[in-house]
Amino acid sequence: MTEPRRPDALRHARRERLGLLFDYDWDALAHQALGQRFAYDRAGFDLFSFPSNARLINFDLGAFAAKQARRARQRGWSGVVSHHEQFGALAAALVAEAAGLPGTAPEAVIACQHKLHARRVLQRVCPEANLRFSDLDAHYGGPIPAGLAYPSYVKPVKAAFSVLARPVRHERELHEHTRFGKRELWVIRRLVEPFERIARQRLPGVGTAHRMMLEEPLRAPQYNLDGYVFDGRLHVLGIVDAVMYPGTQAFMRWDLPSRLPTAVAERAADVARKFLAAVGFTHGLFNMEFFHEPASERLSVIEFNPRLASQFGDLYRRVHGVDAHEIGLALAMGQDPAALPRAEPSAGAASSFVYRTTDARDTIPAMPGPWQRARLAREFPDAMLFTYPKSGHSLARDFKWLGSHRYGILHLGGRDAHDLRRRCEAASAILGWPAPYAGEAQHAAVHGTFDPSDALAARAQPLR
Fold it and tell me: In whole angstroms, what is the distance from residue 412 CA to residue 379 CA?
């Protein structure tokens, strides 16, 4: 892998050619907006749409990466980028290594994505920020071992989007949650096996990813620390707050700016610095999910993601004037993101609003029709809308694997949190969907409260 280079800012660079792997949704929109300055070669497939996801059959991550590395050399790529959790981040690391491009070490990506191994590393370098954990010594669908402590939190060793992660109160719930049909097992194995093959080669001591693990259950406010490492030094972009649907672990909103005190944010950055150094993560974007309990001041890591949390890139552009996707391109070319210019923020507050049904018995709202979309675009030109219509086996799998069905996401900005809520409620009325604010008082009582006297103005600036 080549050493990072420090050319002029991207706005002065020639039109570089970059490889974009598994580039969809937020990533595709953000990279398209930057496309006049770059030439792109794309590869990969969409896991959530047919027939694209049929390529999951017999997908070989190593062979895919080797093919793209050859393409990188032939086409003269200056870098390779992917913010895709399931396959893309590791594929990009493998391609960069093979093609001699700047990138994250594949072993560091594996160490983050193998959740059981990541817990072991965190226990060694920062045990005060770890949750109690253990391996679930059972094959998929196998008998549940006796003597486990309940309640507990079960999740796959390798997964994304909180798939199959949930609290269990007793053995019967754990047993029911780990019973899989043939269709489910087929999907699970093909999602994990490409990672498993590479992990066996590059970090053989971590053990198989074809299993689940148990963690200490914890109910507390949840946050995301976003940042990057360049030249071995960690830089923080900011903190995004998670708001859940009351009484569930299902995300209702992602809010920026954060209400987390600056001192706690600095503690979170220190934890990230120790962990990432321990796994050899010296170059690239990262995201750390964590809990913070206001009463006890306990900070607990949920997991590390060795890539940009793409859903938040738009929020940082609106509120901080920082383009996280542009940072990703700079890092891919070995350029120092500190040289990038900032834009004028367009909002004082922004949120990613998640519309979902948490009860399988509920009627799922209809998708917005052409006239609704046209009206939304006319009245809210800054709106960014994604829809996820599902039915049949796909819908049933959502409720089994996620405990809910996400049918839409809307991004909006506002002058402040109050103006943002007013705009969201009006936009939701156009879509015919309930605004993701219901039951927030209950949420605060269950998951912890925030002190409104904290200096919100200070938190409106990203950390340096």
Answer: 12
